[in-house]
């Protein structure tokens, strides 16, 4: 499936602000700075649909995007950003939690992990959570351009072990910089999404 149309819909902090279009939804979650916003731009072939920044904690709201006029992509705030206050962290946590619990339209969750790092406790918790709530999960390892093939193979193993993945669970290796992994991810996202 090609993404021919992508437009920003709305930013929300609470459920009453979520768009009410009834379209099937795919959410993108992961640590702050992992590359969520960049990945959405890459998938939609848009350089500036979503704001990207070298400063972690850029995305502080839940951003909804309309895709091909009939699906929604949702860019969630990144978790685990060290430089914010405890209160702020709790606020973000609750925002993400509220969304994941209360969103009927949500069909799939793309969990992003930085290919260079061992998944954190937050990552493991997020993975467990998504499974617990019964959403289909797509695991993506981002920034693959930063590692050699040899290093990628090693990291892949660490991620699999840390999350205790089954053999049949795939990790899609992705680079927004080099536009790698795009077709594979699009296929996983749109498979049986209707
Ligand atoms: N080398 C490389 N850098 C990347 C890639 N994807 C993202 N980045 C960089 O990583 C930084 C964070 O990217 P974002 O897309 O803003 O990350 P995010 O997950 O949306 O971050 P928050 O909004 O803070 O949660 C930026 O400096 C990007 O340019 C990639 O595939 N390769
Ligand atoms: Mg972002």
UniProtKB/TrEMBL annotation:
Pfam families, per database record: MMR_HSR1 (PF01926)
Keyword Nucleotidyltransferase: no
Cofactor requirement: Mg(2+)
Record-linked PROSITE patterns: G_ENGB (PS51706)
Residues in EngB-type G domain copies: 22-194
Function summary: Necessary for normal cell division and for the maintenance of normal septation.
Name under which the protein is recorded: Probable GTP-binding protein EngB
Natural source organism: Clostridium tepidiprofundi DSM 19306
């Amino acid at each position: 499936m090609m993404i021919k149309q992508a437009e920003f819909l709305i930013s929300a902090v609470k459920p009453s602000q979520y768009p009410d279009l009834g379209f099937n939804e795919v959410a993108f979650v992961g640590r702050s700075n992992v590359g969520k916003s960049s990945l959405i731009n890459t998938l939609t072939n848009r350089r500036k649909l979503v704001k990207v920044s070298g400063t972690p904690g850029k995305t502080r709201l839940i951003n909804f995007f309309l895709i091909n006029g009939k699906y929604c992509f949702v860019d969630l705030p990144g978790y685990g950003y060290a430089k914010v206050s405890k209160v702020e962290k709790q606020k973000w946590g609750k925002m993400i939690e509220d969304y994941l619990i209360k969103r009927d339209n949500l069909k799939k969750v793309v969990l992003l992990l930085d290919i260079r790092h061992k998944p954190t406790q937050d990552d493991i918790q997020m993975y467990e959570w998504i499974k617990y709530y019964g959403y289909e999960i797509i695991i993506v390892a981002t920034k693959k351009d930063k590692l050699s093939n040899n290093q990628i193979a090693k990291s892949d193993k660490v991620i699999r072990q840390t999350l205790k993945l089954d053999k049949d669970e795939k990790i899609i290796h992705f680079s927004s910089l080099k536009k790698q992994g795009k077709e594979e991810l699009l296929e996983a996202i749109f498979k049986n999404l209707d």
